UniProtKB/TrEMBL annotation:
Family classification: Belongs to the UvrC family.
Provenance organism: Methylophaga thiooxydans DMS010
Cellular component terms (Gene Ontology): cytoplasm; excinuclease repair complex
Pfam families in UniProt: GIY-YIG, HHH_5, UVR, UvrC_RNaseH, UvrC_RNaseH_dom
Residue ranges of every copy of the UvrC family homology region profile domain listed in the record: 261-484
Domain of life, source organism: Bacteria
PANTHER family: UVRABC SYSTEM PROTEIN C (PTHR30562:SF1), UVRC/OXIDOREDUCTASE (PTHR30562)
Protein name: UvrABC system protein C
Subcellular location, principal: cytoplasm
Function: The UvrABC repair system catalyzes the recognition and processing of DNA lesions. UvrC both incises the 5' and 3' sides of the lesion. The N-terminal half is responsible for the 3' incision and the C-terminal half is responsible for the 5' incision.
All residue ranges annotated as the UVR domain in the record: 211-246
Assembly, per entry: Interacts with UvrB in an incision complex.
One GO BP: nucleotide-excision repair
GO molecular function: DNA binding; excinuclease ABC activity
């Protein structure tokens, strides 16, 4: 239990007098403004040291300086341990919602799939306390993810999903039986043994232990083919394909994997935490969170604030993989273990399958953040700030950005991406395969791409941009000036964006044609965030185009040319997946589960269809 020991200053805050008598014990502090509203809640192992750090003369972030200037009083509550302080801090943050804390909107309980313990078990969605007898699978990130799984499982394994009140009052089979989604145990049309087999297959699948199910189906398909019962073989093949698709995994962990993956990204004035749910070695989906007040935080600080708000009071997996080493990670781990009653590991994956899961989580986080940044209201503000920063006469409603990508001069590709007030206008994106230049000459590549784009514009093709953004420095800008001058488009504003010496976001150099010196924008400027977003998208699109062009020149197109994949293995592969198209869709882990296909050979097969992307 915490010991209530409250200190309060009410008038103009005298930090020196307050700190003089402040205890060095662990506890929680609450900062209040002149209206008595709590603006920040924090925890400390040593209250005196932690609170003192806010009043030092140097080293404070801009956000902290603004917050400290509003302090009219500080209240503290002493606790026995730092663990107690963390729990109390979490409770106060959720209750008071202080404006300067990183805040996570509390969610409803997550949905689970539930198989009842009846003689003829029911498969259903479950929320809330797990009081019923049966097996629970999850959690799933959303009700939609559960419904999708239920729908697909019903096609694969006809286990009943009807309410018990409906089930026990049937006198004849329902429509689900007629469309082959149920075997009608309600009226005795299936034996308990046969029904039990479908239930066992369902459980094996949900636990990720489904290779035996796949082998059985493949054997049945082969047997049907041998009997010349091609209709039955085709039906089983379709079931194999459907089962493969629902268990497809781009990145795979062990069959017994039960953990969450947390990826934190802070970018362009916004922050996201992506939570991926891995159960039984299978990815059950992910969910994106955009905590308030986190734009100026580091990923480490973001995770440290997110983890207790997200997990305390909920079911906690035994392992949580983190994209960054969260602050106070040992404390967080101890508290989660105490609260959950089982061992909890918080760690950054360094190698193997955990790294592959983390890369997937980061990719999803990037996509979620990009979608959030593209919201119309947010973009409009950024465009308006950009207009003011560049002193443009009109709002730039259409920005085109060009970038160049190649590998040591090979297969050079230029990209053109387009952004408007509605976000990325992908229908207007263009790629230019650059030919006839010296390999690695980015200036010539930029000249060729711009010439082709704006020559078409002068012929009446496409729309004129309001701002031309060039990813590069003065050399690339000079090429743009020459091209536009030759095409009588010199009135089109040209802005160059070049990375700083250490290539860190916020340190870019901006050059606007016609203005002396650099354009200066602060690291937290919405205008700079917009330019970074457009530049990064152009860079991504250019790299994608270059890799596709390079892969097309190098890629082997048939299984026959893969070293180590002989006729028998090819036949087994096609049989297990039901065709070449499904082999192409498969991940490395699924390919390697086929008899005779090693991990290294599975990687070769995967690379044939996916290049080195």
């Amino acid at each position: 239990m915490a010991e209530a020991e409250t200190k309060t200053e009410t008038n103009a805050f005298d930090s020196a007098a307050f700190l003089k008598n402040l205890t060095g014990r662990p506890g929680v502090y609450r900062m209040l403004d002149h209206t008595g509203t709590v603006i920040y809640v924090g925890k400390a192992k040593n209250l005196k040291k932690r609170v003192s750090s806010y009043f030092r003369k140097t080293g404070l972030t801009a956000k902290t300086q603004v917050m400290v200037a509003q302090i009219a009083a500080i209240e503290t509550t002493v606790t026995h341990t730092e663990n107690e302080a963390l729990i109390l801090e979490n409770n106060l943050i959720k209750e008071l919602m202080p404006r300067y804390n990183i805040l996570l909107r509390d969610d409803k309980s997550y949905p689970y799939l539930f198989i009842s313990g009846d003689t003829f078990p029911r498969l259903s969605v479950h929320r809330g306390a797990k009081r019923k007898v049966g097996k629970y699978f999850g959690p799933y990130p959303s009700a939609g993810a559960v419904r999708e799984s239920l729908n697909l499982l019903q096609k694969l394994f006809p286990v009943r999903q009807c309410e018990d009140s409906y089930y026990y009052n049937r006198s004849r089979p329902c429509l689900q039986y007629q469309i082959k989604r149920c075997t009608a145990p309600c009226v005795g049309l299936v034996s308990e043994e046969d029904y039990k087999k479908d239930v066992e297959h369902t459980i094996l699948f949900l636990e990720g232990k489904n290779q035996q199910v796949m082998d059985d189906l493949s054997a049945d398909m082969e047997a049907a083919s041998q009997r010349l019962d091609f209709e039955q073989a085709a039906a089983i093949r379709d079931k194999v394909i459907a089962l493969r698709r629902v268990q497809e995994r781009q990145y795979v962990s062990s069959e017994q994997g039960e953990f969450d993956v947390l990826a934190a990204i802070v970018k362009d004035g916004m922050a996201v935490v992506e939570v991926c749910f891995i159960r039984g070695g299978r990815n059950l989906g992910s969910k994106s969170y955009f905590p308030k007040g986190s734009a100026d935080s580091s990923p480490e600080e973001l995770l440290a604030a997110f983890i207790p708000q997200y997990y305390l009071g909920k079911n906690v997996p035994s392992e949580i993989l983190l994209s960054h080493q969260a602050d106070d990670i040992s404390l967080l781990q101890d508290v989660l273990q105490t609260e959950s009653g089982h061992k909890v590991s918080l760690r950054q994956p360094k190698r193997g399958q955990g790294v592959r899961w983390m890369q997937m989580a980061k990719t999803n986080a990037d996509i979620s953040l990009a979608q959030r940044l593209s919201s119309r209201s947010n973009l409009l503000q950024r465009f308006e700030v950009l207009q003011d920063a560049l002193e443009l006469d009109e709002l730039p409603k259409r920005i085109e950005c060009f970038d160049i990508s190649h590998t040591r001069g090979e297969r050079t590709v230029a990209s053109c991406v387009v952004f408007g007030l509605e976000g990325a206008i992908k229908a207007d994106y263009r790629k230019f395969n650059i030919e006839g230049i010296t390999g690695g000459d980015d200036y010539a590549a930029m000249n060729q791409a711009l010439s082709r784009r704006f020559t078409r514009l002068q012929k009446g093709e496409g729309k004129r941009p309001d701002l031309l953004l060039i990813d590069g420095g003065k050399g690339q800008i000079k090429e743009a000036q020459e091209v536009l001058a030759e095409l009588n488009l010199s009135d089109l504003p040209i802005l160059g964006i070049a990375k700083g010496p250490e290539r860190k976001p916020g340190e870019e150099s901006l050059f606007l044609v016609g203005r002396a010196g650099e354009v200066t924008l602060s690291a937290d400027s919405p205008a700079l965030h917009l330019l970074q977003q457009v530049r990064d998208e152009a860079h991504r699109f250019a790299i994608t185009g270059h890799r596709q062009r390079r892969a097309k020149a190098r890629k082997t197109s048939t299984l026959e040319h893969i070293e180590g994949l002989g006729p028998k293995r090819r036949q087994k592969l096609l049989q297990q997946f039901g065709g070449l198209q499904e082999v192409q869709r498969a991940g490395v882990e699924d390919l390697s589960k086929v008899e005779g296909i090693s991990k290294s050979l599975a990687q070769k097969i995967y690379d044939v269809f996916h290049g080195d992307k």
